[in-house]
Amino acid sequence: SVGKTSIINSFCRDKFVSAYKSTTGQYNRTKKLKIDDTMYNIDIWDCGDLQEVDVNQYLRNCSGILFVYDVTNLETLKSIENYAQIVKQHLTVSDSFPMYLFGNKCDLLTQKQYNLSAPEIVAKKLKLSASVVGSARLDINIDSKIKNLVRKCLGLKVVEDDIENFTVKETEDEQVTIVRKKKCNGM
Fold this sequence. Notes:
InterPro entries: P-loop_NTPase (IPR027417), Small_GTP-bd (IPR005225), Small_GTPase (IPR001806), Small_GTPase_Ras-type (IPR020849). By secondary structure, the chain is an alpha/beta fold.
């Protein structure tokens, strides 16, 4: 319900599927990705619940992890701590192992819910490489965050300038508008 499968579909298939079906076990997709003039085949796994799957099977050849929570439900952020502990029990994780925190569903936020301090605290506590929010539905920060995770897995320089900034504006009737900020090209 945090949108992991939607993120994978947005990244791998360039589309958002609004029909919701809970992932049981695992789900994976492969995408060809060009980074710095080199093509890579990226395998992305969605583990519905780490307690339900054979964790060792999915983590054995893992190069990086994107932990996903729902920004409109901070209880899902608390579950990231449990998942991180499971990962650390089954993997030898160094400080350089890429683990990112991604807050999905920013398009459903209200200003009252918009809290970036809690995710930053969790990311720091768990020694995660980075934390960002975005939206699978609106394709905000999906490509940039996954590409940066892949770059880090490959030992390449991360391009933080690719992170798309936005603001959450709430109208009088509490409807939310996402205002994307233009990227500066340095000119």
